Task: structure prediction
Amino acid sequence: MKDTQKQYDLLIESHPKIERKGKTMPYTSVNGHMFSFLSKDGTMGLRLSADDRADFIQTFNTKLMEQHGRIMKEYVSVPDTLLTDLETLSKYLDKSFSYTSGLKPKPTKKK
Result:
């Protein structure tokens, strides 16, 4: 998990507009919507549009992300080998950020 978290942090650090959040479960969000995270077992989940999701699953021979026995419909499971290819993964993080930025903002609970 340590190496996975280190790779995840390097990926996020390479995108100045994106802020890493979460102490126990690292994640990123925009407008109240999470778009990437590391699960407890060290698997990275990435939120993508339907077209990008289908392309990602086919290109990297992976599947939709599963958490606590439930399929996360908009998230793909990022293969460990891709976590070390920051150049390629960075392009998908950009797509994820763009897609999620276009979603209707969630109302904030903070005052």
Summary: The domain at 2-101 is CATH 3.30.1460.30 (Yope Regulator; Chain: A,). The CA atoms of residues 39 and 67 lie 8 Å apart.
